[in-house]
Amino acid sequence: MDLEEACAVSDGIDFHIPKSNLVISARRNEEEQIVISKHPKREKNERPLQTLQGMILVILYALLLSISINYIESAKIRTIVVLFAMWAGVFVYYFLKSKRKEDFASFRYHAAEHKALNYLDRYNEAPSEVSFLMNTSSYSVRCGSTMIAVLCTIITLVTLSVVFLPWIWLKVIGCILSFVVVFLLWAFDFLNFFQKFVIREPTWDEVEVAYEGLKEYVKERKHEEIR
Known about the structure:
Elements: E1 6-9, E2 12-17, E3 22-28, E4 34-40, H1 48-69, H2 75-98, H3 104-123, H4 130-134, H5 144-164, H6 168-187, H7 204-226
């Protein structure tokens, strides 16, 4: 399972084939036609200013947190404050992102992308009709937002085990159990709370784009396996 097998954008979905560094782009143009194109993967940042602003905010937030915890004497309380700040920061980021109206189209394509990948994971082929994708879940265990939730949960549980459990052997057991618990939560899709901020239930139009792109992606992937 490739975690970066596809990526949604404001007007469609890109399916990635890592072995050949190929991208299959499915788009709906201004004439409401679905256009499929193939091109090499290009590394680019479409919003450099937004990325820079985000980095500056993260740095300022970290500096403020660092200064604040210096006034806290208890190491355990400092740990709680830092973990709380981590979760609060991520939640605020996704909450604010969910309110950006200019991203609503990409959120619908994001959900359509999940439907396509969920179907592919289950059946290892493209469906025969768009309706099959419509009836597939819009949530994906491999979504990047879910992976952030997985990482935050692991950091939280492991840190609490190391700081609050009294003996080394208990700390080790706590860390091991932390990974087991997080893996089970992830596998049963209980860590999709950030994902809910960045998807919107797609209409037939978005799912149809995902369907056409998935069909071409499956064909190309089979050709790749033969080579």
